[in-house]
Amino acid sequence: MGLIRKTLSTILLSGAGGAGGFAFWTRNSRFVPIASDDPIFSSAAYLRNNPNQNPQTKDLCVRRVPLAKIKPQLLEKEGEGKLVEAFCAGVWGGLGYAYQRRYLEKKYRNDTTTAHQLWDTRELLESSYDIGTQITDHFEVVSKTPSSIVVRCGDSPLKTAVRDSDGLFEMGVEIKRDEGVAEFRLKSVFYKGLGKADAAPMPSHVEFAHRLYTKLWMESAVRNVVL
């Protein structure tokens, strides 16, 4: 929570021009309900790492962008493959993740256990995010399709067993050519993996801060795909 709060404070006091500027900058990102039968809840990563089906903190942020504003090279081939990779790269290599990346780098980057992971901005922007890719010792790609990339979060990817704090984060894109837009989606599901929980893992004030952070990531990621 402290890291999220520090990141948001840094942005609000600098480029976003305060709370009003941040609200205006992120005005096109909106949250919508996640369906109870969303595929993420039947995915292998979710079922394996939430064995007791503990309650979740979950949200889905959506942002629509006209196709005319998207870099043409990302739309050259059929499907969303190149576009979702660029969107994902924008999340991890963009402004929204910069502070957290530097924080994690100082704590966990080394020449032995985490040398294989993505750390530098350039490699974060250039990666294709194939399954198994590990990001700043806090995320690992566990699923990739032509329209979505899912990472496991909550702890180091070096800890492969069920964790006390765990979650999945999905970056998705759907090209709606009949409407002339691409719909970008950031989906989060957090849960307690170990033991039995009676309540969702995030209290309301932490969930609120997380949603602001998600909107920051969304705007930062979209910057990497538009002209």
From TrEMBL:
Name of the protein: Uncharacterized protein
